[in-house]
Amino acid sequence: AIETQGKYYLYFDKELKEDIQNEYDIKLMLNKAIIYGEFSINYQPQVNSKTGDVIGAEALLRWNTKKLGPISPAVFIPIAERTGQIVEIGYWVIERVFKDYESLKEKIGKNFRISINISAMQFNDENFLRRIKESIEKNKINTSYFELEITESLLLSGLKQVNEKLNELRKLGFTIAIDDFGTGYSSLSYIKQLNINKLKIDRTFIKDYPNNDDGEIADIITNISYKLKLDVIAEGVETEEQIEYLKRKGCYLIQGYYYSKPLAKDEFLEYLPLT
Ligand code: C2E
Ligand code: CA
Ligand code: CA
Ligand code: CA
């Protein structure tokens, strides 16, 4: 038994080592990704299921490496967050999206918003406000076309500090959405005091409906959003059944494969209706 245990331990240790090795390789590759031009942005449409209007899009980072081909953000973003590289990558994303806006603005309506993911580490970066202002000025951006997605993990850094930054961002013209709502650390009394506009229901609370899931959590989050006078959007919606359920519960804003996968900028432009 001891021998088996020992073997098991060795085996486990070897896997762990490989993981660490991979993480180290990815870290090194990420250092070059920007100068090698390996990053790009996809846009996933957000639709009002009542009217059919495309009301926005989420900007999602893509990494196509010369060495290994595409690597999923689900793999490299957590690593970039651990190493701190997400801060510079995040600024690259903002710049890229602001530049894309030049060609998007012709086709998007007045109430359209492009949402950008901001990781907690970037939000907490002391240069965040200065650098985002520089990007706005440099690209002559109308911020009322942009939303920032932040996560509940931010709240760990204290309500007062977070709200001061949120107030500044709101003053600049951005709207703010809480991403992956309900999956992380959060307290309702905190959420209530935050200067935000929207709750985003995570795919976890949608994907198994109606199998293995009665949709209860999505329903509860929608109710919370109404109580707090916030907008609500569901992500990861793939079926008509899910859309109908969310509609019955009062959640009309939808992002998911049912409408479209994330699209390269030119594909996204084609997806948008003629104006
Ligand atoms: P997220 O912010 O929760 O983004 C939604 C994810 O769900 C995206 O995965 C999107 O492609 C996927 N998705 C949307 N609709 C559906 C659907 O109907 N079915 C399924 N199966 N999936 C759907 P993606 O693009 O792989 O991104 C994964 C995560 O990586 C994101 O989760 C976000 O946390 C992070 N990420 C992506 N781009 C950025 C970025 O520019 N900055 C930061 N900080 N994080 C990013
Ligand atoms: Ca997001
Ligand atoms: Ca997320
Ligand atoms: Ca999510």
From TrEMBL:
It is found in: Membrane. Residues 23-275 form the EAL domain. This is Phosphodiesterase. It comes from Senegalia massiliensis. The chain holds residues 630 to 904 of 904 of the full protein.
